[in-house]
Write a structure and sequence with these properties.
By secondary structure, this protein is largely without helices or strands. The radius of gyration is 30 Å and the shape is elongated. It is built from four helices and ten strands; from the N terminus they run ααββββββββββαα. It has a single domain, classed as Leucine-rich repeat, LRR (right-handed beta-alpha superhelix) (Alpha-Beta Horseshoe), CATH 3.80.10.10. A ten-stranded parallel β-sheet has the order 1-2-3-4-5-6-7-8-9-10, with no helix packed on it. 14% of the residues lie in helices and 10% in strands.
Length: 290
């Protein structure tokens, strides 16, 4: 079925048309997973709420802007994908899914997150990239088991200091944001393993040597004049990360010039003696001096 046809049928709320879109979705799938991605859905199919043992629900790439309260029946749900839809607010019913561990909210129109999000005590992965967040909601700092956090491509300028309370956080992805400085709070989080601040406006990077858990830092496409210093074994992705030296600061250049001038003044006069030439063949060395 083509996307154009799906789009037309999605406007018709009759049960017949919805069944046409959903196919033979009548019984609980054996793998406890329902994938309704790219179905041009404009309303959530209520029949899915009857599958109370459902563990994974994928609703990516549809035209959804709300969810029914009946979704609360899916108390065994662990993975919920709502990315690439038309959500302006996170439906509060999502916050009632206590077993949820992975939540995808990327590519919507979300400007903030509700305080009720803190109810998701088992959440360890949150993707909310490419939304309209102008600040990082502090409620995220209450998700104590959060390990992976993707908040890139949002117009965020800074990160709240409360983030350091997330002791389980291992990777934070903030590429394509509006950071003008490296978030100071990350300097107090030695347990973080991956930091991505690619494509921001950071002009200077502090030393990250003391971050003992760090394994990877991505800092490319920033107007910086230095690479972040890291401990041995930490991979850096960005300018001057490998062999290419960083540009010298002005005072460093001046110091080198002064040293060069001093060495010229104290340089001894050239000797008249002919230096010994290196050669593996003694005869060649002798003939060259004759």
């Amino acid at each position: 079925m083509g996307n154009t046809m799906r789009g037309v049928i999605a406007f018709i709320p009759s049960n017949t048309c919805q069944k046409y879109l959903l196919g033979d979705l009548e019984e609980m799938p054996i793998d406890k997973m329902v994938d309704l991605s790219s179905m041009q859905l404009r309303r959530f199919p209520l029949r899915v709420c009857a599958f109370t043992e459902l563990v994974k629900l994928y609703l990516s790439d549809n035209n959804l802007s709300n969810l029914p309260p009946e979704l609360e029946l899916l108390q065994n749900l662990q993975i919920l994908a709502l990315d690439f839809n038309n959500f302006k607010l996170l439906p509060l019913v999502v916050c009632s899914l206590k077993q949820l561990s992975i939540l995808y909210l990327g590519n919507n129109h979300i400007r903030d997150l509700p305080q009720e999000l803190s109810s998701l005590k088992n959440l360890h992965t949150l993707w909310i990239e490419s939304n309209y967040l102008t600040h990082l909601p502090v409620v995220i700092c209450e998700l104590t088991l959060l390990k992976t956090f993707h908040v890139g491509c949002n117009p965020i300028h800074n990160i709240p200091k409360e983030l350091k309370s997330l002791k389980e956080l291992r990777s934070i992805w903030m590429s394509g944001s509006l950071l003008t400085e490296f978030p100071p709070v990350l300097l107090e989080m030695p347990f973080v393993e991956v930091i991505d601040v690619d494509r921001n406006g950071i002009r200077y990077f502090p030393s990250l040597v003391h971050l003992t858990g760090l394994k990877l830092v991505i800092y490319d496409h920033n107007p910086c004049r230095n690479a972040p210093k890291v401990a041995k074994g930490v991979r850096r992705v960005g300018r001057w990360s490998e062999e290419t030296p960083e540009p010298k600061k002005k005072f460093e250049v001046e110091v080198e010039q002064e040293k060069a001038e001093e060495s010229k003044e104290t340089e001894p006069a050239a000797s008249n003696e002919i230096p010994a030439m290196k050669s593996d063949n003694p005869q060649e060395a002798t003939s060259s001096l004759s």
